[in-house]
């Protein structure tokens, strides 16, 4: 049985299932890796940490640039879903030791401030 990239990503990252349609926009990049690596050569990050870091970096502009806002400071339905996925990515980065809990709190405050200013 051949799986599509979204199914592969949902099996590897079950948190994506609860986020509905947003997974369709993000998961194609998750399914492109030909083979997983056990450790990143850059900074000693785990492969999971790298995935969540890339996910958060690719979602950030969707939230902070105003493309997914109904009007200034108010996220659209898609924007709220992106924010939920971004929150999952940031929490996973903390659990993968990419950054500390304090840095996670700073990131959450930063993205919400940017979101409030955009739109």
What is the averaged pLDDT score?
Answer: 76
> How would you characterize the largest beta sheet?
2 strands, antiparallel
Uncertain residue ranges: 27-41
Gap between N and C termini: 43 Å
Report the strand count: 2
Radius of gyration, taken over Cα atoms and rounded to an integer in Å: 15 Å
Strand arrangement across the biggest beta sheet: 1-2
Order of helices and strands: HHHEEHH
Query: Which structural class do you get from the secondary structure elements?
Result: mainly alpha
Q: Shape, please?
A: flat
Count of separate DSSP helical elements: 5
Strand content bin: under 5%
Helical percentage: 55-70%
Summarize the structure.
This protein is mainly alpha-helical.
């Amino acid at each position: 049985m051949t799986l599509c990239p979204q199914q592969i990503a949902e099996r590897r990252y079950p948190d994506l299932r609860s986020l509905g349609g947003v997974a369709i926009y993000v998961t194609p990049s998750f399914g492109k890796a030909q083979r997983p690596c056990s450790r990143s050569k850059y900074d000693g990050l785990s492969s999971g940490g790298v995935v969540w870091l890339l996910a958060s970096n690719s979602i950030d502009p969707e939230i902070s640039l105003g493309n997914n806002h109904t009007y200034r400071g108010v996220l659209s339905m898609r924007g709220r879903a992106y924010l939920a996925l971004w929150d999952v990515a940031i929490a996973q980065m903390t659990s993968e030791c990419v950054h500390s809990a304090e840095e996670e709190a700073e990131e959450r405050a930063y993205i919400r401030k940017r979101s409030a200013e955009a739109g």
